[in-house]
Structures are given as structure tokens and as C-alpha cells.
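Now for a specimen:

…
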Amino acid sequence: MSGIIPLHPWFGIVLLLAAIALLISGLRFYQVRYQPDPEWVRKLFHMSSGTFALIAPWLFGQDWPVLVVLGFVAIVLFLFRVTRLKNGPGKILSDVSRYSFGEMYFVMSIAILLLFTEQEERVLYSISLIILTLADAIAALVGVRYGQVRYVVPEGMKSIEGSFAFFLVAFLSTHITLFLFFPMDGMANLMISITVSLLATLAESVSWGGKDNLVVPIVSFMMLKFLIVKDNAHLLLALTLALLLFILLEACRRTKVVCPQALMGISVISYVSWAIGGIDFLLVLLLHTVSSPIILKSSTELFSSKKIGLFIATYTMSFVWLFLYQQTQSEVFFFAFLIGLLAQSICFSLTEIFQSSQKRHLLIYLFLNILKNWGLTLTALVLRSGLSSEVVVHSIWAAVSMLMASGIYYLFVFKRSKAAVLIQPICAAVGSILGILLF
């Protein structure tokens, strides 16, 4: 694929980096001179950099120059966090009241989409970035200015008005882009646009700390890739289930029978898992969820101890394997999905137990968790492949891998609760990789 403008790659890289430097300088000048709302400055950077990311692959016609630019940008953003630049140009990102790594997640999401999209899927890449760039920025600004009806997320509040603005912009972005660049039946376009927008809105609603910059484009891309090849009957089923899910979550939010934020996060992940991986992936999630009674606790207790974020984070590594499964359709990633989910849930349980009055029985609880998750693993593998000696061996090796992952967490980092949300996926990744070595 050739670029729109025949630029030498390295000249284009220098040109794009110069444009980004000019953007940062201009925003810093605007911030110092006019003292605008810090959120407005942050979103201007977000929308402008999103526009660069949207245009760059089409401009170069190949991926590696864009990845080089992303690498330089990631280094600059890191320096904005840890050096004196934090009080200079870094203030365009760090001058808001909440603590967020959103810009780093933004770079990660662009890199992931570039690495795993084919040239013929670039329209889907573009839609995912348009949703992130426009819908997220407009939702934040609408929420700040007009938000009246608010709901709680793990690290703060969001507004119904902001979420509705997100849905509306996401719908228009998807619908118009598909209409212009992806010929299909009008009804199919409508159903795809509504379904993707609903899922992206729900994903954004349960994201915190800037993680929506990673979650929203990945979820949007995965759902677009899944839906774009389906007939109208399948699209109607997907839309109906998404609408039913939305209605159920709204009912739970109003009645507070269960913690709505935990349920919302689990439901979004479950829906995407069903859509991408089928009933087997959904069954694994359901088995894990019903064996985790934390979601039945009161929302006040959960929020006061900030456990929801950690609980939803237990699905992080599995979502990575689900994404890779969609790209490759390799059975090994189902096994990794299974181990990653259960290993991370054990790490979560270790943190819970250590912070409770039962920490003297930590090793007993660890053993019981390993035993329970071995049973869940064996059940899932038998339902997927049938009972055989190979399945039993795989389930035992999965238990060993989970033990190794939780052992690393237990020995080195589980006492540092501030790092738990970051370390848990790393330990789960170690367990998953160990598990698939024998698969």
C-alpha cells in the first residue's frame, strides 16, 4: 500500500514529530497565556494526537514509520512524568485534578491496532480511533459542563449526560464512516453502529485512570471485526443481546441489588468474549464469576476499599488472549485465556485475604483457590474437548502454572497494594505463558 503523499519514510517521521512538538508548544503557550480549564487543554491534545494517529498510516502507507513515531512519543510522555518537564510542557497532561496514565494507554492502543490490523481492515482501525478521539473527548467536556445525573466508578464519578454524548458521537462516527468507505446494506450498517456504540459506551463507563484510551478502541475494533462479516440475522441477535444487556445493567444500577459497576464490567467482557470466542469463552467467565462472591457485596463496601478496580482487572490478561485468539483462531489462546483469568483471580484473592483478619491462613486459602481453579479448568476443558488423559494433564499443568504465577505474586509484590492492579496482569501473563509451553 502506497501512501497518499509520496514521502520518504524518515522525512515523514521527522515531519510528524515536528508537528507533534509544535502541538505541545502551542498548547503550553495557550495554557500559560489564557489559563483555560486543564481538562479542555488535555482533550485538545487528545483530539489532535488522535487525528495524527488517524492520518499517519494512510500518509506513510506502511506501519513501521508510525511505530517509530509512537516510540518517540512514548519516551517524551514518560519524560513529562518523571523529569522537570512535568512542570513545563508536561502540565498540558498533568494539570488535571485526577491522576491518569491515559496518554500512555492511548499510545499503546494505537500500536496494538497497527500491529494486528491488515491493510484491508484499516477502515475498522480508523473507526476505532475516531470513537476514541471524538467520542471520549466530547463526552468528557459534556460531562464537565452539563453533567447532572452522576454515577460512581472505581476512582471517581461520571455522568449520564456524558455517557449519552459518548454513545451519540460513537454511533455517528461508526455509521457515517461505514456508509462512506465500507459498502453494505443500510440496515446492517445501522445494527452494527448501534451495537458497537453501546459496547464502547459501556466499556468507557467502567474504565478509570485513563484506561478507556486502551479499552474503548480495542473493544470497538474487536466488535467491528466480528460484526462486519455477519448476516442480518446474526446482527439482529447481537444487537438484541446488547440492548437487553444495557436494560439489565440500568435496572441493576437503579435497584442496587448487586454492585452495578462490577456487574457492568463483567457483562461487557462476557459479551465480547461470547461474540469473539463463542459459548466456551463465555462459560469460562461465568464459572469464574459465580465462584467470586465479591460482586454480591454492597457497593458501599466495595468502593470504600477500592476493590472493584482490582476485581475487574482480574479479566485484563484474559482479554489480551481473547484479542489474540480473534486474530489467529489458535486453540492455544483459549488455554491461555483460561489460565490468565484464573491466575489473576488467585492474585486478587491473595490481596483480599492479606488485608482481612484471615491472613494467618493465607497458604491454606491459596491451596483452596488453586484446587477450585483446577476444577474450573478441568470442567472448561472437558466441555470444550471431551474427557481424555490429555485434557487431565493439561488441567494439572494449568494448576501448576497458576501456582507459579500466584507464588511470584505472593513472594515478591502482593504486600504492595498500590502496585497490585499493575502487577496482577504481569503475574497472570507469566502463568499463561508457562501454561501454553506444554499445550
User: Anything to note?
Assistant: Residues 289-439 form one domain. The longest strand covers residues 150-153.
